């Protein structure tokens, strides 16, 4: 009984790292949540260009871990990786802050200033590429026993791994809430220089806390195991495959009496390696990499079906924000709500409803499914996808109403007498969908890869949102071509009275519904890693 209680509690190092992760999210969201406004108002980009820029930058930020994590896992400890990449992260934030200050105080050439701005943003991306996956995997390493880390053999039972990912997401959402709500207000009222300086200071503080607490951490010996070095294994596999291809030979054996009129072509293959078990040399590197590749390829169909959710995930920071700028935003006479602050509704709904997930939803689902865990991770992700589709339908309906009211106005002002709080339902539903899909994705990709690839599993999870960002940017570019080919402004007109974001939201809802349908079919045939291990043990 005591052991069961211990497995459902997080230790102090885990809690400390969740706080550090929350501070990092404060810094990141303090920059990205209002970045589209900065690009349109200060850098003077058009709405569509600013949205594509933000989507592309977020895509690079989420995709880079796939390139950097194998390198980090092969040659560095996770602790060293976190410190090294946090230095790049802070350098990028300092460069971004200096850019904003220069634009405020000194007339700067827009071309040169924009180039320096982009270099700053992509330096932040480079820092995040090694920092975030390593920090989350390092946090999971702090669970007291190895039995807490891998997937349990019985998926129906709750475990501390699920608890860790839930509270990890709770922590980063708390930091995101403060970053979105506080920093968007400061940036709109006090300027962009101080608006970017505060996230930089918070990030520096979080790295200091992380480094000064090093004596409390657990350092896993498996990080130094040769079999846990994926980059080294990749090169070894390429070398082995090349040798294997060179050793192929063709022979034409003499015709036998039974097949005198047939010449048989035989493919003879020399042994790949010597039998050296007596020498104690490792034999796993030549066979484990193909197994690891099979694991990743086995996840690819599910990974693909999650991309439309990631596309929807990009909307609050881009078009939702521009949509809110045209609506009635004042509370009383003097208080004006920054549109980006509404993104905090997503994180508030997560923070308020995350505890209810365990206390209310799981007991209800247990009555239906008769499983201790309530719903499995695949069902959890699917429920979130359904909620995101409903959110986009609501967004399309609200935008259509906004356009209807705008068409009846005689003035040329873009602001319509429709409260910005009409956007709250779509934000809240996206927040609830995150509780299901995003937390489910973290657990899914962490569990379904071998233990030595756990950091890579986190990188696979972030890459969904990276590719989703690129897909969002590509979709905007494609729609612009088709809808503005006749000389009109298209769906993404800078004049929000002429833009047709409602059609764009409907397109996203329909596309996501198709992805959900295919996802449901794939789930019927998918076997989890624990199920495959159970079959192999029989």
What does this structure look like?
The protein has 538 residues and is mainly alpha-helical. The chain has helices at 2-7, 12-32, 35-41, 47-75, 78-105, 110-141, 160-190, 192-212, 230-246, 285-305, 307-313, 319-325, 344-369, 377-407, 424-447, 454-483, 501-525, 529-537, and strands at residues 248-251, 266-269, 327-328, 330-331, 335-336, 416-419. It has a two-stranded antiparallel ribbon. Strands 3-6 form a two-stranded parallel sheet. The protein has a two-stranded antiparallel sheet with strand order 4-5. α2 (12-32) packs parallel to α7 (160-190), α4 packs across α6 (110-141) and α5 (78-105) packs antiparallel against α8. The chain is globular and about 65 Å long.
């Amino acid at each position: 009984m005591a052991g069961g209680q211990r497995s459902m509690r997080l230790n102090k190092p885990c809690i400390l790292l969740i706080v550090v992760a929350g501070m990092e999210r404060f810094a990141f969201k303090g920059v990205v949540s209002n970045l589209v406004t900065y690009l349109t108002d200060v850098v003077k980009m058009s709405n569509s260009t600013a949205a594509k820029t933000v989507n592309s930058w977020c895509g690079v930020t989420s995709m880079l871990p796939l390139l950097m994590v194998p390198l980090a896992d092969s040659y560095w400890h996770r602790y060293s990786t976190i410190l090294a990449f946090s230095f790049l992260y802070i350098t990028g934030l300092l460069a971004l802050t200096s850019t904003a200050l220069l634009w405020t105080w000194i007339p700067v050439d827009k071309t040169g200033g924009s180039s320096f701005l982009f270099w700053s943003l992509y330096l932040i991306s480079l820092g995040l590429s090694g920092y975030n996956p390593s920090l989350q995997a390092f946090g999971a390493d702090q669970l007291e026993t190895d039995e807490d880390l891998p997937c349990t053999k019985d998926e129906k039972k709750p475990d501390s791994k699920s608890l860790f990912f839930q509270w990890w997401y709770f922590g980063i959402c708390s930091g995101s809430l403060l970053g979105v709500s506080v920093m968007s207000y400061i940036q709109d009222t006090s300027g962009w220089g101080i608006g970017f300086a505060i996230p930089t200071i918070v990030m520096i503080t979080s790295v200091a806390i992380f480094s000064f607490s090093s004596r409390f951490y657990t350092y896993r010996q498996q990080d130094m195991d040769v079999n846990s070095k994926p980059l080294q294994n990749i090169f070894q596999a390429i070398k082995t495959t090349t040798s294997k291809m060179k050793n192929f030979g063709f022979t034409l054996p003499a015709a036998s009496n039974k097949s005198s009129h047939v010449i048989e072509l035989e493919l003879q293959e020399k042994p790949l390696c010597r039998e050296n078990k007596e020498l104690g040399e490792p034999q796993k590197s030549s066979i484990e990499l193909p197994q690891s590749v099979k694991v990743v390829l086995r996840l690819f169909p599910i990974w693909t079906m999650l991309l439309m959710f990631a596309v929807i995930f990009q909307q609050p920071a881009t078009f939702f924000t521009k949509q809110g700028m045209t609506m009635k935003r004042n509370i009383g006479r003097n208080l004006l709500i920054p549109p980006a602050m509404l993104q905090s509704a997503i994180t508030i709904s997560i923070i308020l409803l995350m505890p209810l997930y365990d206390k209310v939803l799981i007991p209800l689902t247990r009555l239906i499914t008769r499983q201790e865990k309530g719903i499995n991770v695949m069902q959890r992700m699917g429920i979130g996808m359904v909620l995101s589709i409903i959110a986009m339908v609501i967004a399309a309906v609200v935008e259509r109403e906004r356009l209807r009211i705008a068409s009846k106005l005689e003035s040329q002002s873009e602001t319509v007498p429709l409260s910005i709080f009409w956007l709250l339902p779509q934000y809240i539903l996206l927040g609830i969908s995150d509780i299901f899909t995003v937390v489910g994705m973290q657990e899914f990709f962490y569990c379904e890869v071998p233990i030595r690839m756990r950091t890579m599993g986190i990188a696979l999870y972030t890459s969904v949102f990276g590719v989703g960002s690129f897909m969002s940017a590509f979709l905007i570019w494609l729609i612009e071509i088709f809808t503005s080919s006749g000389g009109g402004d298209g769906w993404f007109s800078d004049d929000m009275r002429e833009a047709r974001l409602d059609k764009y939201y409907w397109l996203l809802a329909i596309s996501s519904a198709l992805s959900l349908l295919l996802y449901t079919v794939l789930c019927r045939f998918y076997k989890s890693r624990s199920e495959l291990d159970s079959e192999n043990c029989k």
